[in-house]
Amino acid sequence: MNRRQLAGLAILAILIMLALQAPGVAAVTTAPTAPLPAVPPPLPFQDNPDPLLCGIPQPDGRQGVVTGEYAGEVVQPIVYLYDSHSRNQVVGQVYPGTRVKVEFSQVNPQLNFYFVRTIGVTPAQSGWIPAPFLVFRDQP
Fewer beta carbons under 10 A from the terminal one: N or C of the chain? Predict the structure, then answer.
């Protein structure tokens, strides 16, 4: 295995530890620098069938941690933030383990979304994230 592969494995291990909130590991402080996808990728879970039936965003104020997990597995090593719950455009991206403030929550028929702003991340990121990729600080 070459140095580049070893460095990649080390970074992946750190990200997984952060996503699991391992004790003694610092919070993520940088955002990915890769170009944003031109077309939003499909979600690994069911989306809302009709965006017109979705709820009205409500002020929130909680803090959470982005996980990139679904069904107990990290399915998105980079979690995308969207322009709305309709996911027409990717407007930001964060690593699992990134702390966020939830500005708005939106209860929808199938899949809830949260408008989040990163905490302590450079460059700052904000956008809508699907509920499965977010854990609130007060949850176990």
Answer: C
Q: 3-state SS of the chain: helix, strand, coil percent to 5?
A: 15, 30, 55
Q: How many CB atoms lie within 10 A of CB 98?
A: 28
Give long-range contacts, CB 8 A cutoff, 24+ apart: 51-54: 51/85, 51/86, 53/108, 53/109, 54/85, 54/106, 54/108, 54/109
For the stretch 39-73, what's the b/e string if a residue is b when 16 or more beta carbons lie within 10 angstroms of its beta carbon?
Answer: ebeebeeeebeeeeebeebeebebebbbbbbeeee
pLDDT in tens, 98-126: 999 999 999 999 999 999 999 999 899 99
**Those residues with Cβ within 8 angstroms of residue 72's Cβ, 6 or more apart along the chain or in another chain:** none
Give tens-digit pLDDT for 73-82. 999 999 999 9
Strand partners, 100: 64, 118
How many Å apart are CA 70 and CA 117, to the nearest integer? 21
